[in-house]
Recover the amino acids of this structure.
């Protein structure tokens, strides 16, 4: 990584200062036609090239352009050249021609951006962080939770069925996070888990409802269903916040080297991912208020990102 030439700083040939380019843009070169061979117009004016006796070996068609932020000197690097080659070679033909009985054509070669610029460093940082977040969400089976959530909120699955699925999920989590998974009942497991008191209470209440339905032929009313949904939402929030807190996102962003990457944009990019991508998976109707904003606060994001 460290020896990657794209990561090197550019040394300005005028002021000798080293810098990371803010950005590059591509410039297409249109050359004058009649003055000289070098000044041959290339594409698409075929006639212009035909006017010269001996065609140039290499024609620069596009360049990467950036400038030194200290002295303003403009630097150019090859982005695309057309090389004169014998006709038998394979390649994308730009223009074939006959020169003193030999057939040539111009073959195009492209060159990548010579150095990473601010955008590349930013994209790389975001990609790393998002990939860690994705891994954390995979650890808590976010897709499964999303399908449960859709059952509760959008697909209108029978609430009791959703409750049973929710409990299967909860049990799985408790077993997985328990160092000594003995045969105990779920209440005991919930008691031994590090759930916050409020979530524990909600889970106990939903457990009572479940037993009432199973043992006493009780029918869930609207309040019961809301309670179950609330418990499920708290459970999901707990899982997501615990898992993402482990990533220490705030200090990771604070530790990004100053000057190259706009840290505020990193916060925004993470917020957008959690809002759009994760929000789409979970599909809670009040996702922003109940999950996203408290989550960003728990992750110690600056206040402006959640208020
Ligand atoms: Zn300079």
């Amino acid at each position: 990584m460290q020896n990657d030439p794209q990561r090197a700083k550019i040394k300005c040939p005028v002021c000798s200062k080293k810098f990371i380019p803010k950005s590059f843009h591509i410039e297409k070169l249109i050359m004058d036609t009649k003055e000289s061979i070098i000044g041959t117009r290339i594409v698409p004016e075929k006639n212009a090239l035909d006017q010269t006796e001996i065609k140039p070996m290499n024609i620069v068609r596009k360049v990467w352009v950036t400038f030194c932020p200290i002295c303003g000197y403009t630097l150019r690097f090859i982005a695309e050249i057309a090389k004169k080659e014998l006709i038998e070679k394979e390649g994308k033909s730009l223009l074939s021609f006959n020169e003193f009985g030999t057939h040539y054509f111009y073959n195009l070669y492209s060159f990548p951006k010579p150095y990473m610029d601010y955008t590349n460093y930013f994209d790389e940082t975001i990609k790393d962080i998002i990939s860690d977040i994705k891994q954390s969400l995979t650890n808590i089976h976010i897709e499964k939770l999303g399908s449960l959530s859709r059952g509760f909120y959008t697909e209108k699955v029978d609430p009791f069925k959703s409750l049973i699925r929710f409990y299967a999920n909860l049990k799985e989590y408790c077993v997985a996070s328990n160092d000594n998974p003995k045969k105990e009942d779920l209440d005991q497991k919930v008691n031994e888990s590090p759930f916050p008191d409020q979530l524990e209470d909600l889970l106990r209440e939903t457990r009572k409802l479940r037993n009432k339905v199973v043992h006493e032929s009780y029918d869930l009313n609207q309040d019961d269903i809301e309670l179950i949904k609330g418990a499920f939402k708290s459970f999901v929030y707990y899982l997501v916040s615990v898992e993402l807190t482990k990533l220490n996102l705030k200090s990771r962003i604070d530790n990004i080297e100053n000057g190259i990457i706009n840290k505020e944009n990193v916060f925004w990019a993470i917020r957008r991912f959690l809002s759009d991508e994760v929000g789409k998976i979970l599909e809670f109707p009040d996702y922003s208020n109940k999950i996203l904003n408290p989550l960003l606060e728990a992750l110690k994001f600056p206040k402006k990102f959640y208020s």
In short: The two ends are 39 Å apart (CA to CA). The beta strands are 10-11, 18-19, 25-28, 58-67, 74-86, 93-99, 102-110. Residues 12, 14-15, 17, 68, 70-71, 73 surround zinc ion (CB under 6 Å). Residues 32-46 have pLDDT under 50 and may be disordered.
